[in-house]
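Q: Sequence in, structure out?
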Amino acid sequence: MTTTGIQEDIDADQRPHPVSGGPLVQLPTAYGDFVAQAWTDLVTGAEHLAVSSPVPPADGRAPLVRLHSECLTGDVFGSYRCDCGEQLAYALEMINEFGGTLLYLRGQEGRGIGLANKIKAYALQEAGFDTVEANEQLGLPIDARTYHAAGQILVEMGLHEVRLLSNNPVKQDRLAEAGVLVVEMVPTEVPSRDQNIRYLQTKKDRMDHRLVLDVQTAANGVAHEQD
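A: Exactly. Output:
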């Protein structure tokens, strides 16, 4: 790629990404009372949901923000092959207590490869491949997610400085490109399980996620993983 082409890509990343927000509605949940707002990505057509505490942070700190990728198996069915559902619950509890917003990002199933491909990757994982290798065997990206719309939604909501609920430093970098300053990374590590320890170890070792993990559990882990 030429220098001009690289600069064009950088400029494209920094341009506002068109999104459209809907009305604010009350959303009472098991984790507390929130305010919800649907957002449409006008480029891809994907519909996302912002779930926010109605009360701003009392201590004057930047609000907590969680960018949560859609995970049907973990979020809806409570699958133990990943930590997604438990991270979702943890983030909502934190936002309810300390103030902030969770962006539920649809179209990001399986780190962006889709539900059907995620199940195909599961089959390969059960044959011995880790989550990165499984995607590679399918000829798919290791992580196909983008955060252009997420960053623009936060900007439209007036959230220019945030405390990011995440173990993934890539999200911090992507938000910076969209004009959102991450002033603090707040860990969202939840207890690992035998069913997901190899997956989590792979995220730590091969995808640079900031995880501690339980060494004893890791030693006894099995080869089931989740994207």
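The chain is about 40% helix and 20% strand.
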